[in-house]
Amino acid sequence: MTAALPDGLRLRRAHPQDLDDVMWLEHVSFPTDAWSASQMSGELHSPHGYYVVIETTDEGTAPTVVGYAGLSSLPGNPVADVQTIAVAADQRGKGLGRVLFAELLDEARRRGVHEVFLEVRADNPVAQTMYTGFGFEHIATRPRYYQPDGVDAWVMRAELGADAEPGPGPGPIGQEALDDRG
């Protein structure tokens, strides 16, 4: 289900060392309600989280994070939550959000998750459309959830289904994480 990335970009597991790059993108993507660096650091260090980044791979320049996304699920729990997803403004419209989101859902399947939840701003129809395309449905609204803007959150949910059995062990991104534990 994962779409291909455009040339010059790669998807990889996020590391705590990515915090500064992720926080820069967090603040430009969510200027009024960005997570704090301590919140994001906690997520990147959490054994229950699964964060990925898309970065540039241009020769002669340092890689730049242009997208990130995160999932949280406790071991053995059949439920997971999409924590966050963001793509740099100059990279939008290239399918990067879909690649990030598909990787989170693939990881949820590998973890044996059957149900995934997320919140999305009620004033973000582009994201809502993407989530709906992945089988998510709007199940509730949280009034004035996003502060200080006072924007409602749509709670969305999808069942991964019995046909979405986890693959044989970790995928390529998951395997990288296992190799890093060594």
The Cα radius of gyration reads 16 Å
State the share of residues found in helices, binned by percent: 25-40%
Per DSSP, what share of the residues sits in E-state strands of 2 or more residues? 25-35%
The largest beta-sheet arranges its strands as: 1-2-3-4-5-7-6
E-strand count: 7
Q: Give the biggest beta sheet.
A: 7 strands, mixed
Helix tally equals 5
Summarize the structure.
30% of the residues lie in helices and 31% in strands.
Structural overview:
The chain is of the alpha+beta class and 182 residues long. The protein has helices at residues 19-29, 37-45, 96-110, 125-133, 172-181, and strands at residues 9-13, 49-56, 65-72, 79-87, 115-121, 137-146, 151-159. A 7-stranded mixed sheet has the order 1-2-3-4-5-7-6, sandwiched between helices. Helix 1 (19-29) crosses helix 2. The protein is globular. 29% of the residues are buried. Residues 164-182 have low confidence and may be disordered.
